[in-house]
Amino acid sequence: MVSLRDAAWTAESVWPLKTPSTRQESNVDKVLGGLLVPGFDERTCHSRYSSVFYRKNVTRLPSPHLIKRLRKQEALQRRCGPGTEAYRAATARLQYRHRVGVNDTTNSACKYVVLVPYRGLGNRMLAVASAFLYAMLTDRVLLLDRATSLSDLFCEPFPGTTWLLPRRFPIKNLQNLTGEVKESYRNLVQNNSAASVSGLGYVFVDLDHTCTYHDKLFYCDDERQFLYRAPWLVMRTDGYFVPALFLNPAHQEELDRMFPRKDAVFYLLAHYLFHPTNKVWGLVTRFYNSYMRNSDEKLGIQVRVFDGDTPFKHILDQILACTSQERLIPEVVTQEPIMLPPPSTTGARSKAVLMTGLSSWYYENIRWKYLQSATVTGEVVSVYQPSHEEHEFSGKTTHDMKALAEMCLLGMTDAIVTSGWSTFGYVGHGLGGLTPWVMFKPENLTTPDPPCRRARSMEPCMHGPPFYDCRAGHGADTGKLVPHVRHCEDMSWGLKLVHPE
What we know:
Layout: H1 46-50, H2 64-80, H3 85-95, E1 112-117, H4 121-138, E2 141-144, H5 150-153, H6 185-191, H7 197-200, E3 202-207, H8 213-216, E4 232-237, H9 242-245, H10 249-258, H11 265-273, H12 278-292, E5 297-302, H13 313-325, E6 350-356, H14 361-372, E7 380-384, H15 397-410, E8 415-419, H16 423-432, E9 437-439, E10 452-454, E11 468-469, E12 474-475, E13 485-487, E14 495-497
Helix pairs in contact: 4-11, 4-16, 12-15, 15-16
């Protein structure tokens, strides 16, 4: 089995590798239509400007207004970020907030959102993208809690500053904050205590996918009711909440200007924010160049099982049924010919199938199927799986590095099949700008019928959406309020962005 598990962590991991494209660098838009800024030291982060060579094309280009807002956010991050006088003053006021009067006008000079992402790497990446968009909409500086492995996985996205929260931050044990603390948005809403925000110094927003009704009223906040008084916002979330921002009337006009195409929000945010470190990028490029580069077609299959670590035959049957019915992989012949034809002088078409998952059992069965029998089309199908950890070890740096490498590799395929409910899958197809075939979550250990369905867009699903109409002020089916926010294919109550045709 081809594996990243025993990959050597050597200097070769960070050395520039030959790109897989024959195109000249001068003809390639390495800044993705202005999404990125030039000028970063390419030696410290190879992926920032070279990842474009590993994709066939840029699926969506940024709008002029999005580019303008990104440059504005970068300037804000530099002006108010760690190491600046503005940051030192803001943290001093936070530490001694009871000595600062509520009429202190300097509180509004710089405002911050401190993100506390958690759970699996896919969850954390979706949370970062969501919080970043919220920060842009509300003119806040985004800072990430250091408690997870994100600093080992990604290069800094902002020029001239850091997005990592300094270790000597006045609020301790951020990972242990809950919606029960007195500073929580939930309590402020329940007690109608907007006036006390200035005295608190910060507001804690709990956006866990199981958060309460009052927590979710945050999605309707227009920064005039409570939050404009809070220079510091601490946000804890484990998923993608961008669809809820599109339901807030206060943000709709700006979001429409930033994202004329509603189905490319995560794709653009992810390619701005997430640049794997050289060590991770070395894993990605070496695997790609060794096993995927020369194939005519590349198919990604992402397997996530929620019923335990034991392999299940009904999941294998579902994978095979989906890829067969959607004609993603050719069938094999049921009876071998008496005499094999001579090798073609032009060569048969080749298809590389990249499988990811905690178990190797599904990979081994599918690989053996295409080893023991020829395909009916004559195509040569090769099946690979970079790693199989058997169990999830979220937050462990080495585990997360391998997970990120596999997400990047999935994004380099031409088509992709993902498991429903899986944030790992959302990120994989989102990075590639690929609209996936989504395999439905099995019930009662039975293969679903149909086994999969083509998604309406490449956007991730929001698992814990609000059920409240901000404009009308009452409960509602939020999947029917605007044409570009609809329910997900894999989770009937979830929300996702689509581009209305």
